[in-house]
Amino acid sequence: MKKVIVIGGGPAGMMAAIKASENNKVILVEGNERLGKKLFITGKGRCNVTNAKDISEFFEYIPGNPNFLYSSLYTFTNEDVMSMFTTLGVDLKIERGDRVFPKSDKSSDIIGALEKKLNASGVEIHLNSKVINLLSKDSAIIEAVLSNGERIQGDYFILATGGKSYPSTGSRGDGYKFAEDLGHKIVEPKPSLVPIEIKEEFIKELQGLSLKNIQVTLFKENKQIYKSFGEMVFTHYGVSGPVILSASRYVKSQGEYKISLNLKPALSEQELDSRIQRDFKKYINKDFKNSLEDLLPRKLINTIINLSNIDPNKKINTVTKEERKSLVYLLQNLSMKVKGLRPIEEAIVTAGGVSIKEINPSTMKSKIIKNLSFCGEVMDVDAFTGGYNVQIALSTGYIAGEKVGDEL
Ligand SMILES: Cc1cc2nc3c(=O)[nH]c(=O)nc-3n(C[C@H](O)[C@H](O)[C@H](O)COP(=O)(O)OP(=O)(O)OC[C@H]3O[C@@H](n4cnc5c(N)ncnc54)[C@H](O)[C@@H]3O)c2cc1C
Fold first, then answer.
1. 20 to 30 A Cα–Cα from 294, which one of 177, 235, 288, 354?
2. What is the pLDDT of residue 252?
């Protein structure tokens, strides 16, 4: 029986500790006063714990090194995650986009279930225990040094310290430094799934407006690089919401990026034109500025009128065909220049991390250090929103814990 030290009590570390405890003595070391602080805020406090799509479809939603995750996702699948939580007494429900949540809408139920399992498995949990260094000799870790000076010896170590975003949850990128000191290559950590700042001033008038069922197209140097449907919200600096967060994955620090919104993606150009003609007939004696109420949310009307270059006080019956056509174009191509991404601290996930080239995908074991494995977001893997990131943490944690005893 080995003494296994798991560093980091997020979903990846908790799962690794649970699985490793089947054959080993396990100590779970967490810097915070409680486990799963980031998990607690996931899914706006409801925790989108996985996705109910067939596991074969997951890889389309993982832009960051999907192939590396084949083995782990097929070993501990979304079905396995759902059945684990159901067995632990958490009823689940499936929402739009096949997102899986606890029926209670409480992320604390997910954390509580994992804690229950950790306790039942005899895992020793050390809270308020921040690791500051991992001491090694002859390509093997000997002990973890804590900030209070305490040292924890072990036969095997699992690094599950998460990414670099939302540092108040305890995920500050410490694992990158430990891995680098041990000789691992770190792919530069970058924000992924992060709000986007916009150059246009009109963004400020729209703050707080959420739009459903819109189409977002991202262009780099006028070449389309991403397109998707969904929900978004305007903020004081730009745009956010699920479809924007996914688009942000493709915005790099170099280059000119533009976002184009189709506010009426369900209608063709002709259909939208006919729709506007019907509205114009209805409001024939009104001014242009009072004719868009049926078509657009109130908060958007002023901005669209200003951008349309049509005199707001013009009577509807004097709006020309060209003006109407340009209005149709504007509604389907509302263009905004990207100023940049919000900082990594505000990102839902970190892209980059410990290079997967130096990790065995079937075991999560380091190819450099004999008694070290990785799991979760500390590695260079990342997915879109939809429950995929927690699933990745649980699947890689499962394998890291299971394979502790195996040879490289
Ligand atoms: C606002 C927000 C909402 C999200 N919503 C969802 C969602 O609904 N569904 C989804 O799939 N994903 C979601 N995610 C992403 C998801 O939370 C993460 O991908 C996931 O938590 C990663 O798990 P992890 O265990 O690898 O890392 P983390 O959850 O970050 O856990 C790492 C743990 O390690 C501890 N730690 C770090 N350094 C040390 C150290 N030196 N010593 C001791 N302990 C240390 C930290 O305190 C932390 O508890 C969301 C993220 C955010 C920020």
1. 235
2. 87
- Let me know: does 167 contact 158? Beta carbons within 8 Å: no
pLDDT digits (tens, 9 = 90+) for 364-381: 999 999 999 999 999 999
Mean pLDDT of the chain: 96
Question: What percent of the chain clears pLDDT 70, i.e. is strictly above it?
Answer: 99
Mutate to test the pocket of ligand 1, among 348, 385, 391, 392 (most ligand atoms within 8 A of CB): 348
What is the atom index within ligand 1 of the atom nearest the CA of 391? 11
**Is any ligand 1 atom within 6 A of the Cβ of residue 354?**
no
CA–CA distance from 203 to each of 236, 264, 290 (Å)? 7, 19, 21
Task: Give the C-alpha distances (Å, rounded to integers) separating 382 from 74, 87, 333, 347.
Answer: 17, 28, 30, 12
Residue 406: what pLDDT?
Answer: 60
Decide: helix, strand or coil at residue 349: strand
Task: Compute the half-sphere exposure of residue 294: CA atoms within 13 Å on the CB side of its CA.
Answer: 12
pTM given for the model = 0.92
Alpha carbons 358 and 90: distance in angstroms, whole number: 36
Verify whether ligand 1 is closer than 6 Å to residue 165 (CB atom). yes
